[in-house]
Design goal:
With about 325 residues, the chain is α/β, with parallel strands linked by helices. The protein has 10 helices and 8 strands.
Length: about 325
């Protein structure tokens, strides 16, 4: 039996690009149906992430004029990762497979054909991976590739050059629903679920319209969330640094005593050097990293909902 596909598209202030990319998503679903790869009940689920422009109105109009479109709206902006998760959880009981993709049209929509083929061959997860970054600036390319390398070095299992363009089966999504953490980083959470997976490579293009909503500041915040949500290696690094500084401090004390005995120091200078230079800065950095983890624990213990859906354009249910 042909699988029912739901394309999950997070949208935040996308009134400029959504009218351009929505017909492309519609055409791709129609093409896959014509090729007998997916079921005719396949849909495009647009997730409004608390947009402040007319994005939700556009989603409602698309849903009314085309039965392939449906939409949900979050009660407020909760971030890209939570918007994707909301769409996946909404779709998991309505379909057999989902493909999450950004609204901006940068990801090659034709890679969906290969993703569906890989699923039909037995893969439960198919990652969309960029094969080149020719359209990026040098700084963007350097920082992005460095991000993936640092993440893996820190112990977070992520697929190199993969963002959030992926196919995930409903079977995997049902297991993902058991992951209850509030701090969401799907690029690292999906691999933790397991199951058979593969990658599809494609070229990423320029944004079709509008402006990017992911500046360097948000990318850095995402990287920090990813590391602190999936790895405790920074804490272990702090422990190692602490031991190293302790050894240096001990040697410094011996050296200072020797200089004092030799009469080559000013009174109080030795102790000041040992305390300030070897301990002060390291303590502040260490406390900052530990504080980041404590903050994550604080948010997790509150167990607040990761998303709240305030409106729906329809209530499709899988037969």
């Amino acid at each position: 039996m042909k699988p029912i596909l739901y394309i999950v598209v997070p949208c935040y202030n996308e009134q400029e690009v959504l009218p351009v990319t929505a017909p492309l998503f519609d055409a791709k679903v129609g093409e896959l149906i014509e090729k007998n790869k997916i079921h005719a009940k396949s849909r495009i689920l647009l997730v409004n992430d608390g947009s402040r422009d007319s994005t939700w109105e556009i989603i409602c109009n698309l849903s009314e004029s085309n039965s392939r479109f449906c939409g949900i709206s979050q009660s407020r902006n909760r971030g890209h990762q939570n918007a994707v998760l909301a769409g996946l959880m909404e779709a998991k009981d309505l379909c057999d497979i989902t493909i999450s993709i950004d609204c901006d049209g940068q990801d090659d929509i034709n890679a969906m054909d290969y993703m569906v083929d890989a699923y039909l061959d037995g893969c439960e997860v198919v990652y969309g991976v960029r094969n080149r970054r020719d359209t990026d600036t040098w700084f963007k390319r350097f920082s992005a590739e460095g991000f993936y390398k640092v993440m893996n070095w820190m112990g977070a299992e992520v697929v190199f050059n993969h963002a959030d363009y992926r196919l995930v089966s409903s079977r995997v999504l049902r297991e993902l629903a058991n992951f209850k953490e509030v701090n969401i980083f799907l690029r690292g959470m999906i691999p933790l679920v397991g199951f058979k997976s593969t990658s599809v490579y494609y070229e990423r293009r320029e944004r079709l319209a509008g402006k990017s909503h992911y500046p360097l500041k948000k990318m850095a915040a995402l990287a920090l969330d990813g590391v602190t949500s999936l790895s405790i290696r920074p804490i272990r690094i702090i422990t190692g640094i602490g031991l190293f500084i302790a050894v240096l401090s001990f040697l410094g004390v011996l050296w200072s005593i020797a200089m004092y005995i030799a009469g080559r120091t000013v009174s109080g200078w030795a102790s000041m050097v040992c305390i300030v230079c070897f301990i002060g800065g390291v303590q502040l950095i260490s406390l900052g990293i530990i504080g980041e983890y404590i903050g994550k624990i604080y948010l997790e213990t509150k167990a607040r909902p990761r998303y709240i859906i305030s409106e729906r354009t329809g209530n499709d249910k899988k037969d």
